[in-house]
């Protein structure tokens, strides 16, 4: 997870993680 790519990419990763957590739990 590179922060140099931009804040939007970070948000995308967070959203993906959130979706994964919701799917698992």
Feature tags:
25 residues, 72% helix, 0% strand
Report on this structure.
Helices cover 72% and strands 0% of the residues. With 25 residues, it is mainly alpha-helical. It has one domain (1-25). The radius of gyration is 10 Å and the shape is rod-shaped. It starts with 6 loop residues before the first helix and ends with a helix.
- What is the radius of gyration computed over CA atoms, rounded to a whole number of angstroms? 10 Å
**Biggest sheet statistics:** none
Structural class: mainly alpha
The domain tally reads 1
Series of secondary-structure elements, N-terminal to C-terminal: H
- The number of strands is 0
Separation of the first and last Cα atoms: 24 Å
* Residue fraction in strands: under 5%
Shape descriptor: rod-shaped
Helix content: over 70%
Count of separate DSSP helical elements: 1
Q: What's the average pLDDT?
A: 76
Unreliable sequence segments: none
Topology of helices and strands:
Elements: H1 7-24
Task: Write a concise synopsis of the structure shown.
The protein has about 25 residues and is mostly helical. The protein has 1 helix and no strands.
């Amino acid at each position: 997870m590179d922060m140099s790519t931009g804040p939007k990419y970070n948000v995308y990763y967070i959203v993906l993680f959130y979706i994964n957590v919701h799917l698992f739990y």
